[in-house]
Write a structure and sequence with these properties.
The protein is α/β, with parallel strands linked by helices. The strands form six sheets. The chain has an eight-stranded parallel barrel with strand order 10-11-14-15-16-17-18-19. It has a six-stranded antiparallel β-sheet with strand order 20-21-22-27-24-25, with helices on one face. The protein contains 16 helices and 27 strands. The longest helix is centred in the middle third of the chain and has 18 residues. Helix content is 24%, strand content 20%. It is globular. It has three domains: 125 residues, Sandwich (Immunoglobulin-like), CATH 2.60.40; 397 residues, Alpha-Beta Barrel (TIM Barrel), CATH 3.20.20.80; 95 residues, Immunoglobulin-like (Sandwich), CATH 2.60.40.
Amino acid sequence: MQTETQTAAARRKMYDSKAFEVQFHTDAPLGALWTARSTRFALWAPTARKVTLSLYEDGSAGDSTLMIDLVRGERGVWQTEVEGNLDGRYYDYAVTDSEGVTRQTADPWARACGRDGFRSMVIDLRRTDPEGWAADQPPARHPEDIIWEVHVKDFSHDVHSGVPEELRGKYKALTLTGTTLDGDGVHPTCLDYLKRLGITHVQLMPVYDYGSVPESDPEAFNWGYDPVNYNVPEGSYASDPADGAVRIRELKEAVQALHRSGFRVIMDVVYNHTYKLDSWLWRTEPWYFYRQNPDGSPATGSGCGNDLASERSMCGRYILESVLYWAREYHMDGFRFDLMGLLDTGLMERIRSALDAEYGRGEKLLFGEPWSAGRSPMHRKAVPAGKRALPTLDENIGAFCDATRDLVKGHILHAERPGFVNGGSARLADLSAAVTGWAGVKGGRFAVRTPSQTITYLSSHDDWTLWDKLVITMDPTRSFDTPTPEVLRANRLAAAFCFGCQGRLFLLAGEEFGRTKQGLQDSYNAPARLNQLDWTRAWSGPWHELEEYYRGLMALRQHLPALWDKTEQARNRLLASWRPSRLCAAFLLDNSGPASRWDQLLLFYNASDRIRPAALPEGRWQLLADEGRSTCWQDQAPVLLDGLAQLPASGALILGRTSLD
């Protein structure tokens, strides 16, 4: 008898063979295919000996009301058809593998489930559509894409959010308008706050069904990078997690409300690993969907001990169809891929091509983390979609630019290592590369073909918030809630530099008002009260002034084609870069383009604690923003400079030229 390791190694060899793919790959519909008269159940389990379907009245309790053996069909698909309207009925399978072991499993192809996802659900999806859903459309694209990343529970969990208690932390909170701080009627929160901020896209941290949170526990918290049912919304954000239809309807209502409020919606997806190896995918076809080391053990490039084998054809099909399903059924406008470096470039290109064919070239945003947590053995000459591959990928497959992030605020893995704005050093060549989104850079830490591939950012849910990193490196008292002038200046300088770079802009929700997690590096399972957006902070003194600075930069950027140009020629807009003095950097850019009010753009960044003089290029220059105000460009009496400028200490100076005088 073979040992478990020998069996796993044998399966790896079988699954990686071309013969297995030729014999068993299928494009036949899978899952519970509902009609009012009958439901066809189809499960791909090519090495199974037997598959039995069980039907239930309840999503998490009670015995089955009907058991039916499925019939093995072509290419490893087991199927049966059950007469009658089964909408709302729950089900699972018992799958007996080739070694005679029987495992109970939910359906990995399911589109609905019961509480905590242990039973799948037959669903008439049309009854989950909100009123007007068929006509739902995203708002028109802006000249620039500015992405705001938020967790559903973080958004409204705060007792000061103005959201009714029963809706805090729920999908429903994303649909509310008119919420104000403590209900004061003056200071907007949640959706109304976003309307005035200036972002264009809301990126929702995982909203698929994940396993790290009991769905009936209102106090439980996790970021949600633990997939269980890939094609089903998470139930803990629903008003009733026990009814499988409610979570579907309420997520659609949230997307619809965001669209109506002027925002496109991006979904954070995790196709590189599952909550655990013992998943529905594994129980239906042991090991097939998982990448293995040569000895048969599970690869752990995700750090979770179960990397998905995206290069195997049915796994690739599963991921591609899942993305398209979320785009079609939930009207998602983009996808952010967790640990994209664990997926293969062929799959990412197929996803990009399929989205373009259905919705128009580049219409759906597609980007991810171009790295992994460790090495993962891809097979069949597959190429990881990591940093090295970026210059070869479609120009609309983007990636987070950690090079700019670390350059500005300091290394993400070393708390006290500073960056350009908080006491560190930076080469002019690197600063220049950041300004052009690292397009065309040779031999650097990050390189892309065009800035359309670059996600320029300073903080995300991972690691320290921007504010916490600045406090750690600049404030000896480590006071995260008492802002010092030095940290506030560094934050504004960091924001000005980031908003002065080409690429798509991305910020963590609340970054604009100094969001803190009290110095905790990763808050993935910390209490909601630490993770939540502090809406009082958004409207308090220096924090609100910081938010206004961000808001002005977002509005200004819409007028700067030098920065939102995404073409391959965009890097040629950088006409010159120089150092006016030590710890200062200057960049001159061609700003010509549609609706441009200034033919050239001049960016000064002074990271020293002293005012520095700087000579200006020929012409008269209008002050657009300085170290304290990012709305100078809106003044009725513009400030014009020529000859010489005084660069503010620890601050930025942004100038625009209208003509040569």
